[in-house]
Amino acid sequence: MSNRKLLISFIVLIAFANTSIAQTLNENTGWFAWFNSYKFSKNWGLHFDGQVRSADNWRYVRNVLIRPGITYHFNPKNNVTVGYAYVGTFNRLVGVPKNSLTESRIWEQYINNMSFGAVSLQNRFRLEQRFIERQADDIFSQRLRYFVRTIIPLAKQEGKFSKGPYAALQDEIFFTIQNKEKLNDSFFDQNRVYGAVGYRFSPKVDLEAGYINQYVKGLNTNVSNNVIQLAVYTRF
Protein backbone atom coordinates (compact mmCIF):
# COMPACT_ATOMS: atom_id res chain seq x y z
CA MET A 1 0.00 0.00 0.00
CA SER A 2 1.44 3.41 -1.01
CA ASN A 3 1.68 6.37 1.34
CA ARG A 4 -0.95 8.19 -0.76
CA LYS A 5 -3.45 5.31 -0.54
CA LEU A 6 -2.89 5.00 3.20
CA LEU A 7 -3.50 8.72 3.69
CA ILE A 8 -6.68 8.61 1.57
CA SER A 9 -7.95 5.67 3.62
CA PHE A 10 -7.53 7.66 6.82
CA ILE A 11 -9.29 10.70 5.35
CA VAL A 12 -12.26 8.51 4.39
CA LEU A 13 -12.29 6.97 7.88
CA ILE A 14 -12.25 10.39 9.51
CA ALA A 15 -15.07 11.65 7.29
CA PHE A 16 -17.19 8.58 8.03
CA ALA A 17 -16.55 8.79 11.77
CA ASN A 18 -17.97 12.32 11.95
CA THR A 19 -21.05 11.93 9.76
CA SER A 20 -23.19 11.24 12.84
CA ILE A 21 -22.44 14.61 14.46
CA ALA A 22 -25.72 16.50 15.05
CA GLN A 23 -26.40 19.55 17.21
CA THR A 24 -23.94 19.45 20.07
CA LEU A 25 -22.37 21.45 22.87
CA ASN A 26 -18.90 22.62 21.82
CA GLU A 27 -15.92 22.68 24.18
CA ASN A 28 -12.26 23.68 23.79
CA THR A 29 -9.71 21.89 25.97
CA GLY A 30 -6.06 20.97 26.24
CA TRP A 31 -4.56 17.55 26.95
CA PHE A 32 -1.01 16.57 27.87
CA ALA A 33 -0.11 12.89 27.57
CA TRP A 34 2.91 10.68 28.18
CA PHE A 35 2.89 7.16 26.69
CA ASN A 36 5.68 4.83 27.76
CA SER A 37 6.58 1.21 27.12
CA TYR A 38 9.45 -0.67 28.73
CA LYS A 39 10.55 -4.15 27.65
CA PHE A 40 12.49 -5.98 30.36
CA SER A 41 12.83 -9.38 28.66
CA LYS A 42 12.26 -10.97 25.27
CA ASN A 43 8.54 -11.43 25.88
CA TRP A 44 7.60 -9.27 28.87
CA GLY A 45 7.29 -5.54 29.34
CA LEU A 46 5.52 -2.74 31.18
CA HIS A 47 3.08 -0.15 29.90
CA PHE A 48 2.36 3.24 31.44
CA ASP A 49 0.54 6.32 30.29
CA GLY A 50 -0.41 9.40 32.21
CA GLN A 51 -2.65 12.23 31.04
CA VAL A 52 -3.79 15.63 32.31
CA ARG A 53 -6.86 17.21 30.68
CA SER A 54 -8.29 20.69 31.14
CA ALA A 55 -11.86 21.88 31.54
CA ASP A 56 -13.56 23.93 28.83
CA ASN A 57 -11.51 26.92 27.65
CA TRP A 58 -8.47 25.70 29.63
CA ARG A 59 -9.94 27.02 32.90
CA TYR A 60 -8.54 24.36 35.24
CA VAL A 61 -7.39 20.73 35.35
CA ARG A 62 -10.54 18.61 35.11
CA ASN A 63 -9.18 15.10 34.56
CA VAL A 64 -6.13 13.10 35.60
CA LEU A 65 -5.60 9.63 34.15
CA ILE A 66 -2.97 7.09 35.27
CA ARG A 67 -2.85 3.77 33.40
CA PRO A 68 -0.20 1.12 34.16
CA GLY A 69 -0.15 -2.39 32.71
CA ILE A 70 1.94 -5.48 32.03
CA THR A 71 2.54 -6.62 28.45
CA TYR A 72 3.31 -9.97 26.86
CA HIS A 73 4.99 -9.75 23.45
CA PHE A 74 4.30 -12.71 21.17
CA ASN A 75 6.63 -11.19 18.58
CA PRO A 76 7.55 -7.67 17.37
CA LYS A 77 4.15 -7.29 15.68
CA ASN A 78 1.70 -8.66 18.27
CA ASN A 79 1.27 -8.14 22.00
CA VAL A 80 -1.36 -8.22 24.74
CA THR A 81 -1.60 -6.08 27.88
CA VAL A 82 -3.59 -6.27 31.11
CA GLY A 83 -3.73 -3.27 33.40
CA TYR A 84 -5.49 -0.87 35.75
CA ALA A 85 -6.56 2.73 35.17
CA TYR A 86 -7.37 5.51 37.60
CA VAL A 87 -9.43 8.40 36.22
CA GLY A 88 -10.04 11.38 38.48
CA THR A 89 -12.56 14.07 37.56
CA PHE A 90 -12.33 17.38 39.41
CA ASN A 91 -15.14 19.79 38.59
CA ARG A 92 -15.98 23.27 39.87
CA LEU A 93 -19.75 23.08 39.62
CA VAL A 94 -22.27 24.83 41.82
CA GLY A 95 -25.10 22.96 43.54
CA VAL A 96 -23.79 19.38 43.23
CA PRO A 97 -22.95 17.08 46.17
CA LYS A 98 -19.54 16.02 44.83
CA ASN A 99 -17.08 17.89 42.64
CA SER A 100 -14.51 15.10 42.80
CA LEU A 101 -15.40 11.77 41.18
CA THR A 102 -13.30 8.66 40.57
CA GLU A 103 -13.47 5.94 37.97
CA SER A 104 -11.40 2.75 38.28
CA ARG A 105 -10.89 0.44 35.30
CA ILE A 106 -9.50 -2.99 34.64
CA TRP A 107 -8.51 -3.23 30.99
CA GLU A 108 -7.24 -5.78 28.49
CA GLN A 109 -5.92 -5.05 25.02
CA TYR A 110 -4.44 -6.61 21.89
CA ILE A 111 -2.14 -4.67 19.55
CA ASN A 112 -1.08 -5.54 16.03
CA ASN A 113 1.72 -3.50 14.42
CA MET A 114 2.33 -3.40 10.68
CA SER A 115 4.71 -1.47 8.45
CA PHE A 116 4.74 -0.48 4.79
CA GLY A 117 8.30 0.61 4.22
CA ALA A 118 8.89 3.51 6.61
CA VAL A 119 5.14 3.96 7.26
CA SER A 120 3.73 2.22 10.36
CA LEU A 121 0.15 1.18 11.09
CA GLN A 122 -1.15 0.06 14.49
CA ASN A 123 -4.49 -1.59 15.28
CA ARG A 124 -5.59 -1.85 18.92
CA PHE A 125 -8.58 -3.53 20.52
CA ARG A 126 -9.24 -2.68 24.18
CA LEU A 127 -11.88 -3.98 26.61
CA GLU A 128 -12.57 -2.05 29.82
CA GLN A 129 -14.39 -2.97 33.01
CA ARG A 130 -15.43 0.39 34.44
CA PHE A 131 -16.28 1.12 38.10
CA ILE A 132 -17.81 4.59 37.84
CA GLU A 133 -18.52 6.89 40.78
CA ARG A 134 -21.43 9.26 40.13
CA GLN A 135 -23.36 11.90 42.06
CA ALA A 136 -26.16 9.55 43.15
CA ASP A 137 -25.46 5.95 42.20
CA ASP A 138 -22.18 4.22 41.34
CA ILE A 139 -22.35 1.85 38.38
CA PHE A 140 -20.40 -0.89 36.63
CA SER A 141 -20.11 -0.95 32.85
CA GLN A 142 -18.00 -2.54 30.13
CA ARG A 143 -16.71 -0.74 27.06
CA LEU A 144 -14.99 -1.85 23.83
CA ARG A 145 -12.58 0.45 22.01
CA TYR A 146 -11.02 0.14 18.56
CA PHE A 147 -8.01 2.33 17.72
CA VAL A 148 -6.05 2.71 14.47
CA ARG A 149 -2.98 4.92 14.05
CA THR A 150 -0.44 5.54 11.32
CA ILE A 151 2.86 7.42 11.32
CA ILE A 152 4.05 8.81 7.99
CA PRO A 153 7.62 10.18 7.81
CA LEU A 154 7.86 13.62 6.21
CA ALA A 155 11.44 13.15 5.04
CA LYS A 156 12.89 10.42 2.86
CA GLN A 157 13.85 7.33 4.87
CA GLU A 158 16.16 4.44 4.25
CA GLY A 159 14.48 1.39 5.76
CA LYS A 160 12.69 1.62 9.09
CA PHE A 161 11.77 5.11 10.34
CA SER A 162 14.18 5.99 13.16
CA LYS A 163 14.58 9.78 13.18
CA GLY A 164 13.01 12.91 11.74
CA PRO A 165 9.68 14.73 11.32
CA TYR A 166 6.45 12.85 10.75
CA ALA A 167 2.68 13.15 10.49
CA ALA A 168 0.41 11.07 12.73
CA LEU A 169 -3.21 10.22 11.95
CA GLN A 170 -5.50 8.14 14.13
CA ASP A 171 -9.08 7.36 14.99
CA GLU A 172 -10.61 5.62 18.02
CA ILE A 173 -14.23 4.57 18.43
CA PHE A 174 -15.84 3.52 21.74
CA PHE A 175 -18.82 1.17 22.27
CA THR A 176 -20.68 0.53 25.54
CA ILE A 177 -21.44 -3.18 25.74
CA GLN A 178 -22.90 -3.42 29.26
CA ASN A 179 -25.30 -1.17 31.19
CA LYS A 180 -25.58 1.42 28.43
CA GLU A 181 -29.06 2.34 29.71
CA LYS A 182 -27.39 3.73 32.87
CA LEU A 183 -25.02 5.94 30.87
CA ASN A 184 -26.13 7.41 27.54
CA ASP A 185 -28.57 4.66 26.53
CA SER A 186 -26.55 4.08 23.36
CA PHE A 187 -24.23 1.37 22.06
CA PHE A 188 -22.09 4.13 20.55
CA ASP A 189 -20.22 6.04 23.25
CA GLN A 190 -17.72 8.34 21.57
CA ASN A 191 -15.26 8.86 18.73
CA ARG A 192 -11.87 10.57 18.66
CA VAL A 193 -10.25 11.72 15.41
CA TYR A 194 -6.67 12.96 15.66
CA GLY A 195 -4.09 14.56 13.39
CA ALA A 196 -0.64 15.69 14.49
CA VAL A 197 2.88 16.53 13.47
CA GLY A 198 5.81 15.25 15.45
CA TYR A 199 9.52 14.66 15.59
CA ARG A 200 11.26 11.36 16.29
CA PHE A 201 14.48 12.12 18.12
CA SER A 202 15.54 8.47 18.16
CA PRO A 203 13.86 5.04 17.97
CA LYS A 204 13.04 5.59 21.67
CA VAL A 205 11.54 9.12 21.82
CA ASP A 206 8.80 10.98 19.91
CA LEU A 207 7.32 14.41 20.60
CA GLU A 208 4.14 15.49 18.82
CA ALA A 209 1.43 18.14 18.89
CA GLY A 210 -1.95 17.88 17.26
CA TYR A 211 -5.70 18.30 17.21
CA ILE A 212 -8.38 15.87 18.43
CA ASN A 213 -12.08 16.11 17.75
CA GLN A 214 -13.73 14.13 20.55
CA TYR A 215 -17.43 13.54 19.91
CA VAL A 216 -19.26 12.16 22.97
CA LYS A 217 -22.80 10.82 22.88
CA GLY A 218 -24.66 11.97 25.98
CA LEU A 219 -28.01 10.99 27.44
CA ASN A 220 -29.47 14.45 26.89
CA THR A 221 -26.63 16.54 25.40
CA ASN A 222 -23.88 15.51 23.01
CA VAL A 223 -20.44 17.13 23.21
CA SER A 224 -17.99 18.00 20.46
CA ASN A 225 -14.68 18.67 22.21
CA ASN A 226 -11.92 20.49 20.30
CA VAL A 227 -8.69 19.33 21.90
CA ILE A 228 -5.14 20.59 21.46
CA GLN A 229 -2.84 17.76 22.59
CA LEU A 230 0.87 17.66 23.36
CA ALA A 231 2.15 14.08 23.63
CA VAL A 232 5.45 12.40 24.46
CA TYR A 233 6.12 8.77 23.46
CA THR A 234 8.99 6.81 24.97
CA ARG A 235 10.08 3.22 24.32
CA PHE A 236 12.79 1.46 26.32
From TrEMBL:
The record, for Pfam families, names: DUF2490
What InterPro entries does its record include? DUF2490
Stretch forming the signal peptide: 1-22
Does the record bear Signal in its keywords? yes
**Sorted alphabetically, which keywords does the UniProt record give?**
Signal
Tell me what this protein is called: DUF2490 domain-containing protein
Q: Which organism is it from?
A: Hufsiella arboris
